[in-house]
Design brief:
Radius of gyration: 24 Å
Distance between the termini: 51 Å
Pfam family, one: GldN
InterPro entries: Gliding_motility_assoc_GldN
Strand content: 15-25%
Helix content: 25-40%
Organism: Flavobacterium urumqiense
Oligomer: single chain
Keywords: Signal
Protein name: Gliding motility associated protien GldN
Number of strands: 11
Amino acid sequence: MMNVRNFLIAIISITWSFTSLAQSNLLNAKTPDQIGLKSAAQLISDNDKPLAYGYVHDRDVLMGKTTWEIIDLSEKINFSLYFPIDTANIGSDRRSLYDVLTKAMKNGKITEVYTDSYFNTKKSIKDIQGSLSRIDTTDVGREQINAGQAVSAENILKQDLTAQDVTQYKIKGYWYFDKRQSELKYRLLGICPVTPDVYTMNSDEKDYIELFWIFFPSAREVLHEAKAFNDKNSAMPVSFDQILNSRRFNSTIYKEENVYGDRSIAEYMKDNAQNQLLESERVKEKIRNFEQDMWNY
């Protein structure tokens, strides 16, 4: 009887610890602005950090392959990375992945931002800001410019990219077989939102671009603090870091490292979407089969 009682107490304690992660102080708040604020005791007892990557020596990597994938946000399984897109009537604790990334870059919490997936050229916040918004003038404003007059504020149009404009995420990762643990593993290296070019957003034929590439390990602290909505249990939200590291999304490989200068599948499987999809699956199977072959004698 005593063992059963101790077991129930342990279960209740664990459940309480998980539910307390949802919205801190929700049940004890006396005013709405106290929701989400942790007490001094909670802050001291917290050890809420992203799960650290284990050290992997180069000699332990028996096989490695870099792949690039597309996460299509129109697929239901990927909605947790897309929504919410309208934050006017929702709490500040819920934001889309795009809003989390752009806010952290503006605040200086994410600094490892690059122009491409090879992380060669860094992008400054000024460069990023120019890609996120478009400033134009009305016809009346152009007439004022031609007449040598100052353009009035009502004739200046500013349009910003929002979370609603993000159609895809591109990710870069490394599949490797750890011979010490005899296991095929994956390490996410970079993430990139794909959006329309701000100067083609209003046209019928939009030009989609890679907005910026973030070196993923440098953004893990920010992504761990930001929580995505858990449709099955709102008391246990899941961090974006957990979603991406555990690959809780659906994606399609569009490129693998190869002798042809890392050419994409679309370059040698032209104008045939079905063959491109089949080739993507072939690349996946090639990686999976390496682990399978290790256990065949």
